[in-house]
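To: structure subgroup
Subject: Chain for Friday's discussion

All,

I'm putting the inputs and outputs inline so they're searchable in the archive.
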Amino acid sequence: MASRSAFSLQCSLPNGRNVSNSEIDAWELKVARRGLQNLKTLLEGQPMLDLLAKQIEEGDAYFKDIIARSNGQFKESRVDFSANGITSSQFLEWFTGVDASGKSVGTRHPYLDNMAPAHPEHYSLGPYPLGIVENIGQHICRVRIEITAEIPDFVLEYGNSAYDKKLAVTCYLDDGTIFFYGFQEFQDRENGFDFRMRIIFPVASPQILIDEHTEHLAIEFRSFIAAAYESLHG
């Protein structure tokens, strides 16, 4: 029986230029993003929430079980960024969705232009002043987000005193149950800023949830920081 040859494939254009697999991967990623953005735009708002209603309900039950088994204990999911060409204040001004005049640009524009493209699993804004429907690990979650005026001491313990700007949010399930905390830290440098983005999850969260949400944060905030830089520099 003849041995099987190793698979290989070469693509080229009529002008004779060879196209690498990585370049085709980039083309595929571009059109996948465009196709997904089209679907998110068509389903934006209540149609998307209706479509995901059963999965949101299943996610709520899953996350409530994790919360109950955690007995008030938490653990961290974190990514660190170092950005040049933009300051933390410039990033935060863009991120809060307020233009130079101080006037809010509304909800539809920030979601479709900023939140939806930032991660494939950003499905919709929630039915709250501030919230998001997204995957957390392998389950869909609808969270209500509130800026935390006084950061709890146990959340601050994850911080680093070298980072002088700190922002925390408390994230709730639909029934008002606290699910997790978001905790961001910023430190400006001569040419840019350092940024730590962490989520403080209930300790019973399985490792795959922690690992996949770390990946989520890396994808999401790389997109946000790059978009803020592009907005700043036209």
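Points worth raising on Friday:
Helices lie at 21-42, 46-70, 88-95, 108-118, 153-156, 207-232.
The longest helix spans residues 207-232.

D.
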